[in-house]
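Ticket reopened. Same input as before:
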Amino acid sequence: MTFKHFILGLSITFALPWFFVIAVPYAKMSQTQAVSFVEDIDEQTGVYTTKRAGRVLDGAKVYGAEGCYLCHSQLVRPTYAGSDVWRLDWAGDANHPDGDTRRETNVYDYAGERFAQIGLTRTGPDLSNVGVRIRKYAKEAEISPEEWAYMHLYNPRHKLTTSWSVCPSSTQLFRTCDVQGQGSLEALSVDSIKDGEQLIPKESARALVSYLLSLKKDNKVPASIDYSR
Amino acid sequence: MATDTNLSNEQDAIIRAEVDRSLRHPVMFFFTSGAVWLAISIFFGMIASIKQHDPDFGLLPDFFKDSSLFAVGRAYAAHMNVLLYGWGAQAAFGVMIWLMARLTRQPSRNSGVILTAGHLWNLAIAVGLIGICTGKGTGVSWMEFPTCVWPVLLLSYVLIAVWSLVQFQVRDGSRTFISQWYLMAAMLWFPWVFLSSHLFVFVFEGHPLMTAGVNAWFKATLVFLFFIPVAVGAAYYLTPKVTGRAIYSYKLAIFGFWALAVIGPWAGMQKLAGAPIPHFLPYMGMVAMILFMIPAITVGVNILVTMKKAPEVLPYSPTLRFVAAGSILLVVLGAIGIALNTPNGLRETQFSIAGYGYEILAIYGVFSMIIFGAIYFIVPRITVREWLSSRFINWHFWLSVYGVVTIVFCSIFGGFLQGEAQEAFDKPWMDAATRGYAYTLGTTIAWHFIFVSNLVFLLHLLLMWMRLGRRSQHPTLLHSHHAESPHGGEGFVDNA
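Engineering reply: fixed in the latest deploy. New output:
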């Protein structure tokens, strides 16, 4: 083997996969077009929009920086790759007023995010539809979804949430401060706080909770990408 | 090896000594600072691991419970990134520049630049670590350092590695060894993989799913096209050097190299199986992960058969023992790659702790073990002192082997059980969430062994760095023959 053969061989063996696995799919997917509803089939018109608020996208950054992806995935795989669709409340709401909303992840679900947090493990549950679940649990506990989410982030083993959870407490997203006047509306009701002090979520927690509540895939998708039809 | 050149043995010995002297400071700097980062990484790994099975932090002192610096997601990111770039890359640089200089028989003329770039690299790692721990990580696995860090890492890398390429170009035309091909390839693959991945993820505007795909590809290729080839290159140098035997089959070695070059770059996207990306991408990844067994078994067999031909050296040389363990674990890595990436295996383990076990096996079990062997070989030569204690080396070896085998067993076996529970969709999620408990606990205990092992190693290396090693003509061997000499048997190991 000479140096010339070496460089030539290395260029071919590396450049080919780099081109076909990385460069071309990257370029093609960056040009993903929006899909439209077709009136005859979908009984509605317009474009399938996936716009998300700025605070939600800030929350996506907090999600990444706090390493939530270590234990939580955001991917409902089709049935050939896993049985995620069938697990209760993972893929959508089977008893939604508009009908069964369960579906696998589509290409528009991470709209606005820089990086799709597919996740590394499922030490915790998949979060593709955690917004649906939080609203359901909050309704059962008769508190607001935001409050439920704050409680769960502060102490995942709180009696209002899940007693057996293996999720670590994200206390770094909260701070204690003195009560001023009537106190904050967002203050968490926890026992460990002294009189005259309150526990409130930091801005990062607000953004993260907005993001988590945005994770729900119960909107109607056009028939062209609805594989359950 | 002296017979491969036109030089006499004496001239050759002089050149070797010059090479060693010229690279003493940068190589010792890379090894020592790398070992410090390794200890830091394992410390973060222990915290992250404890919090996975003991989220209420019952075992930990208050400081680690309450401090946001050690929040589990941050601690895990810190653990992996410091392991990869603080320890892995730096240890690889030290071995790479020394081996390339030795094999091209040219002393380094740029040690000052390399050392400066090494300091820059360390500074960047420190900034990155602080960034992750204060909640400024990017959230992209293995690329979690804040985005200001990676250009600095790339610049330092170029200033460290480019001189070895120059040395190769101006070599005296003597024969090229298989080690050089591996090291050269790793040197060229690394910047391409590193730069293009970071551009695609952080600079260009891409689809979020494909950004995740590039990240998955980056993780696989960083292992297959950088860490593994550097380790294999070192193993192909150390084994013949210490045993005094030629490599069992040079043709097999060349075949193994090209097999890795052809298969490696396709791996990675199997982590996105089921995601709405072009369907061939995960399948290509699965195929590459399975076919990786070919280069793994080629290298493993070639190294181990060569060692087997030298039974008189094998029990005594610390270097050989580490390289043998790394080579065996390389074959195990190939086998586990098959188990995890069959369609059913992937379905169960895609989101289980098995992925972590595979990564730790590759980075610690294969790469680090072989590089430890290289460090035990190189450091006495560049410091002109011998290792102080064969007992320290023994502890380092056994605690490391015990630790990494336990982590891999717990993660892979536990990963399959965890995946099985995840797939049982009609059972409550609590089953799946608590299934991994015993195995993450086992992983924590194993990290403690590895931590102790590396404190011993770090202490030993720091003593060598301070030039407190033994002044002796006799290398430190694992079994000493007190009846013959207090320094161990003579003539077993070529100490030149």
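Residues 481-496 of chain B have pLDDT under 50 and may be disordered. Chain B has one domain: 7-465. Please confirm and we'll close it.
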